[in-house]
Amino acid sequence: MYTGSIRSRLLVAFTVLSLLVIILGVNFTYSLVRKVLYTELDHFLRDKITYQQIVATQIEDRIIFRLSEPILDKLQDPTGKDFFQFRYADDGRDIFKSSFLPIDEKLPEVGIKESDFYIGHDALVKIIKPDNVSEDLELSPSVMTVPIRCMGIVFEANQLDVSDESDNAKVLPIKVHLVVAHNCSDIEAVLSDLKNNVFLVGVILSLFVLIAVTTIVAKSMKPVGFISNEIRNVQIDKTHELLDVSNAPKELYPIVDRVNELLSRVRTAIQNERNFTSNAAHELRNPLAALRTQIEVALSDPELKEDNCEVFSNILNLQNHMERVVSSLLLLARLDAGSEKVSFVDIPLVSYIKKTWKPFFDRASKKQIKVSWDMVESDISILNDPDLFGILLSNLFDNAVSHIPESGMFKIKSIASNDSIKIVLSNTNPGVTPSDIAVIVSRFGRKKPDFEKSIGHSGIGFNICERIVNDHLGGKMTIDVDNEWFTVTLEFPVEVIMGNHYHV
């Protein structure tokens, strides 16, 4: 099934139609001109037959030709274009023919029937070259094959009475078969040139028309492109604006209306999801806090048995996990609602990153993770929101420490340029492929959904990070993976403060 664009379909259809019109036009023009030329030629041949009938006369049982010099000039065309042949109608024996016809060459047997006189016939015959000059001196004369138009008639020659009146014998009339022909080489050459020229003109005109049609189609498709750009730029989760139907052609009104309907339904579904997430998080917050209190009271009991103590400790870990999930959901709800306040202040880059890393040091040590630091100068500060920046780094550190294999590697690097700060976090790839990236950054997306392997992770950490960086901090977050490394790059186009000097 052909799935090209409307524009390409129209151009292909026009090209095919143009070729068809050119072929039909060329053939029609060729056929029309040929018919006109050969109709005029047939009139000429009929006149020539009528003229040549008078030169044949029957004397007793013979046919003679009364040829004066003017008549001979008429019969013997010196250019080799017109020629003739007189034959006996009963047995086809030659009586008299043009000198351009070789001895063994005969014109077609047309005119035998009475109706043939009115019809021109096309054929090929051999004639002696008009100059009678042979290309090979051993061959004389030289002949060539030419296309002809011929016409014939059977008639009785006028009898010339030269017998004695006493002779009572009656001479029967002799029927003569006359064929006249015209060399059509020049006509066919003209027709061939005409066909080529008409085809060339048709192609040139088609090219001009194609350019015009392309321009018209391009202008006609601009509203479609405009609507396409509007759809592409629609941010479903951030705006309630619909597509403007007034900018679309009337033919696209139903499509635009349908898209607007789908946008409204999607936004309603997204809003319902956000409301549910926010309400569920709020409803779980207080019971979890109460649960934490009860577990801590139980653990503080000096009479608590060791086995029970271990059980309550595991329950407390699960409770901590649930509290982090609830906190993440509440943060995600605030980000979705746009209610998260952003306050940019000067943040000392190196010290703030190391401070955020400190809670994860023990976990990394237990897994024997090797940490490599490659930071810019310690006196560099960036303009950023400390709370959101801290949540961003904490989520990325937590994810890295949780998924780096035992004895793996974790690299923390920062790069300062004239217009941006890059923070590059690279860790040993835990088995993520490029196709997994879209799943990882999606809401509640996890490469390994198994709870035992993903304990402490809700699947919304990367989604929160992406929302914070792209929507609230004005930066960009990218994820790259290869066989060895899983790399997250944070780029902030912000002022970098070096001492008392601003470096933009």
Describe the model.
The chain has 504 residues and is an alpha+beta fold. It folds into 3 domains: 7-193; 250-336, Orthogonal Bundle (Helix Hairpins), CATH 1.10.287; 342-503, Histidine kinase-like ATPase, C-terminal domain (Heat Shock Protein 90, 2-Layer Sandwich). The protein is built from 10 helices and 17 strands. The strands form 4 sheets. Strands 4-3-8-6-5 form a 5-stranded antiparallel sheet. A 5-stranded mixed sheet has the order 10-12-13-15-14. A hairpin with a 5-residue loop joins β3 and β4 (94-97). The protein is rod-shaped, with a radius of gyration of 51 Å. Mean pLDDT is 77; it is low at 449-456 and 496-504.
Tell how many strands the DSSP assignment holds: 17
Mean pLDDT: 77
- Helix count from the secondary structure assignment: 10
Q: How many domains comprise the coordinates?
A: 3
In short:
The protein is α+β, with helices and mostly antiparallel strands and 504 residues long. The protein has helices at residues 6-53, 69-75, 185-233, 253-299, 306-337, 349-357, 361-366, 386-403, 437-441, 461-472, and strands at 56-59, 62-65, 82-88, 94-97, 121-128, 143-156, 158-159, 175-183, 345-348, 370-374, 380-384, 409-416, 421-428, 476-481, 485-492, 496-498, 501-503.
